[in-house]
């Protein structure tokens, strides 16, 4: 009887603990979204094209002002027939990161991103709050989450 009482108490404790916990395997944790970039002219036309564009897709690079690694990848979207870039900057405690966008040997721009760190039970993520391109605020297009970087 003594063993049965101990097992009952342990089972009750486990049941209460499991019911009070959020089940992370059944919840979609928020994730830090990539930033999608399009380099466009004032008329909205994409300037990145291997044959007729102002910039060749392979010439565009990102140089980080931070010491960490910045994720930057060319993305060709066949559904819309254009080149975009995915960016995930270095995150730090200041809540802001800047990258130099190297377009070609004579053209470099600055992109500054502000973000907030969120710590949740099932995972952590960063949420972007502000984007500045060469010192001017830019806003992502929704729902695609694409930032148009307008070149003059």
Largest sheet: 5 strands, antiparallel
**Total count of helical runs of at least 4 residues:** 1
Instruction: Please mark out the parts with pLDDT under 50 across 5 or more consecutive residues, or reply none.
Output: 14-18
Please list the strands of the largest sheet in the order they lie side by side: 2-5-6-7-8
Tally of separate domains: 1
List SSEs in N-to-C order. Answer: HEEEEEEEEE
**C-alpha termini separation:** 84 Å
Q: Bin the strand percentage.
A: 35-45%
Overall mean confidence score, pLDDT: 82
Shape: elongated
Number of strands: 9
- Taking all Cα atoms into account, the compactness measure Rg is 23 Å
| Fraction of helical residues | 10-25%
Which class do the helix and strand fractions yield? Answer: mainly beta
Give a verbal description of the structure.
The protein is mostly beta strands and 152 residues long. The chain has one domain (31-150). It has one helix at 2-20; strands at residues 35-40, 61-64, 71-77, 82-88, 96-104, 107-120, 123-133, 136-138, 146-150. The chain has a 5-stranded antiparallel β-sheet with strand order 2-5-6-7-8, with no helix packed on it. Strands 3-4-1-9 form a 4-stranded mixed β-sheet, with no helix packed on it. The termini are far apart. The model is unreliable at 14-18 (pLDDT under 50).
Question: Concise description?
Answer:
This protein has 152 residues and is mostly beta strands. It is built from one helix and nine strands, in the order αβββββββββ. A hairpin with a 4-residue loop joins strand 3 (71-77) and strand 4 (82-88).
């Amino acid at each position: 009887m003594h063993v049965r009482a101990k097992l009952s108490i342990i089972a009750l404790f486990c049941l209460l603990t499991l019911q009070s916990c959020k089940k992370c395997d059944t919840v979609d944790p928020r994730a830090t979204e990539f930033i999608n970039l399009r380099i466009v002219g004032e008329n909205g036309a994409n300037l990145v094209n291997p044959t007729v564009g102002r910039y060749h897709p392979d010439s565009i690079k990102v140089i980080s002002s931070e010491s960490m690694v910045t994720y930057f990848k060319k993305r060709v979207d066949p559904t819309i027939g254009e080149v975009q870039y995915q960016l995930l900057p270095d995150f730090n405690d200041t809540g802001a990161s800047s990258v130099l966008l190297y377009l070609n040997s004579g053209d470099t721009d600055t992109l500054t991103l502000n973000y907030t760190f969120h710590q949740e039970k099932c995972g952590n993520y960063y949420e972007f709050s502000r984007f500045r391109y060469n010192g001017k605020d830019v806003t992502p297009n929704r729902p695609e989450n694409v930032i148009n970087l307008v070149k003059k």
